[in-house]
Amino acid sequence: MKKQATAFVAAIFITLCIALGIFAISGVAFANSNGVQASNVPGQGGSTNDNASNVVSQVQVQQQQQIQQLQSLVSQYQQRDQQYQQREQQYQAQLSQANAQLSQAQQQMQQYQQLVTFLQRRGIITVTSDGQVFVNR
Asked: Is 130 helix (H, G, I), strand (E, B) or coil?
């Protein structure tokens, strides 16, 4: 038991020494006004303002390129939309024409049915159940 207590005290002592050393070094580094500025470009001691402005201009160029690409896509979609609207107008015109032809055909069919009914009533023709037509004389 005495060995464990001694080991525990030694561990606490070593931990405190290391912690004090870390605090001392960080305090000196924090208080040092003659420090060296870090550079993002290896091998150059260039100013960070130049690097930052270069990064900003590159980002702006990329954004302008993306904007141009998106504007191009919007233009393409607008052209397609116009083409689709023109096709829809053509299809509507064709549908309207087909409906007019259908209406005319239905009117003609009604006229033929009226004519056949009239001829049957007068006894001029006879229509059998299987659809054969006979002319009576």
From this structure: coil
